[in-house]
């Protein structure tokens, strides 16, 4: 296992309440550093916090008085206390849209919300996770930011590196949507297309980490993964705070590697443990595209392990055939009484249009996946329409225009009223 040591990593690392790294499988603890796998059992390492000393009401007041970004939750994240003053993109605090029109269409009576993360600086939820990895990179003395990406992460890393004065070099499958390629390239870092799918890109990055060529590089979703992953907790924090410090009954979350879903669960449980929300049951539902549905396939088959698939779907941001956190997603869906479901590419496109036409929210394909899965789960009687439901839109439709390529002009007319009438528009 590639365990990197960078000069002065284990000394004087100030990442706020983050106390150590702890193995999700065996609990083995190691000091904070750029490592991601347990040296005892190869299990994934997670951040262990010291939240002792927080008074619930004081913490709530501090959060509410904090900046309109993820940094209002800095006391709960692996970042230094003065993080908001450092150069970064200040993502988060995105809109929680009360989706009454969509609710009517889907027959939801208990309150339906879209958590719209297209409002982040690079128009996807990835700005949340990259912001954590950036602080870890600063703390460990890295000078280059890198990642393996299905598209959105590449843009988020490029932008964060530009703002923070890091070099960036990111890796993507060579055949991504043009919107994602341009978004990743525009910030001036290096962007490398790999001939292969995301899983090939990821494998390549793992090799690069173990090679002298990758020395001094922080791969946000590989050797900085424990820090990166914590950024997804902020979705859970924001949703609860925006609901008036309440847990939602049901959340529908897209699955690529499964990291976001597992950390949303972690964030919800932390809020309960800290006393910031009242404990009550909630269900977490995972959403995939049929063309890349290793986790929903395992869920439906009752398996604990996830068999890798070769992705073939328009939902490219979710096209990870061998999802690292797949087994944990299965655990969470089962433990909370949720489910994992998938929809066809056609249903994804229908759902993108449905959301746009009902709520004025233009989602990327990943948002089509969550809305489509929500509709399917309601039709199948799995999701309770009488309960408060939050559906995540994690990216912007402008990045995946090809998915809705047939959408365009209603008519082309001459600039005359006759022509307007002839077209049947009067
Ligand atoms: C990366 C990504 C996700 C979730 O990714 P995980 O690997 O499961 O954390 C969801 N939606 C979009 C648009 C993404 O880019
Ligand atoms: Zn372990």
UniProtKB/TrEMBL annotation:
Keywords: Lyase, Pyridoxal phosphate. The lineage of its organism: Bacteria, Bacillati, Actinomycetota, Actinomycetes, Kitasatosporales. It comes from Streptomyces leeuwenhoekii. InterPro entries: Ser/Thr_Dehydratase, Thr_synthase-like, TrpB-like_PALP, TrpB-like_PALP_sf. Residues 91-395 form the Tryptophan synthase beta chain-like PALP domain. This is Threonine synthase. Its EC number is 4.2.3.1. Its cofactor is pyridoxal 5'-phosphate. Belongs to the threonine synthase family. One of its GO terms (biological process) is isoleucine biosynthetic process. Pfam families: PALP (PF00291). Gene3D superfamilies: 3.40.50.1100.
């Amino acid at each position: 296992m590639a365990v990197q040591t960078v000069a002065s990593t284990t000394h004087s690392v100030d990442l706020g309440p983050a106390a150590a790294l702890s193995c999700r499988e065996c609990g083995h603890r190691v000091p904070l550093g750029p490592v991601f796998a347990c040296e005892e059992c190869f299990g994934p390492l997670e951040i262990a916090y010291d939240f002792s000393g927080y008074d619930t009401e004081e913490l709530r007041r501090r959060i509410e008085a904090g900046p309109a970004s993820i940094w209002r939750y800095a006391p709960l994240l692996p970042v230094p206390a003065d993080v908001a003053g450092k150069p970064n993109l200040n993502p988060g605090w995105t809109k929680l849209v009360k989706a009454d029109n969509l609710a009517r269409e889907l027959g939801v009576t208990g309150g339906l919300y879209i958590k719209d993360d297209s409002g982040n600086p690079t128009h996807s939820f990835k700005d949340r996770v990259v912001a954590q990895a950036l602080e870890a990179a600063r703390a460990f003395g890295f000078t280059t930011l890198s990642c393996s990406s299905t598209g959105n992460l590449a843009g988020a890393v490029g932008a964060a590196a530009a703002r923070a004065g890091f070099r960036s070099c990111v890796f993507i499958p060579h055949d991504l949507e043009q919107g994602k390629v341009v978004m990743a390239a525009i910030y001036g870092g290096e962007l490398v297309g790999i001939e292969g799918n995301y899983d090939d890109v990821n494998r390549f990055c793992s090799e690069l980490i173990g090679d002298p060529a990758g020395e001094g590089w922080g791969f946000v979703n590989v050797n900085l993964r424990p820090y990166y992953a914590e950024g997804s907790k902020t979705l859970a924090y924001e949703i609860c705070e925006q609901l008036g410090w309440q847990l939602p009954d049901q959340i529908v979350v897209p699955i690529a590697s499964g990291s976001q879903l597992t950390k949303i669960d972690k964030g919800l449980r932390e809020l309960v443990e800290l006393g910031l929300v009242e404990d009550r049951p909630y269900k977490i539902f995972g959403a995939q595209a049929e063309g890349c549905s290793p986790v929903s396939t395992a869920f439906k088959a009752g398996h604990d392990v996830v068999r890798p698939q070769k992705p073939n779907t328009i939902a490219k941001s979710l096209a990870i055939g061998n999802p690292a956190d797949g087994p944990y997603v299965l655990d969470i869906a089962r433990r909370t009484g949720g489910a994992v479901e998938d929809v066809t590419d056609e249903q994804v496109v229908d759902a993108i249009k449905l959301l746009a036409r009902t709520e004025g929210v233009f989602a990327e394909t990943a948002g089509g996946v969550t809305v489509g899965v929500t509709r399917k789960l309601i039709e199948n009687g799995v999701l309770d329409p009488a309960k408060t439901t939050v559906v995540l839109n994690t990216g912007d439709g402008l990045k995946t225009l090809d998915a809705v390529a047939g959408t365009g002009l209603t008519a082309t007319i001459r600039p005359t009223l006759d022509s307007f009438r002839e077209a049947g528009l009067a």
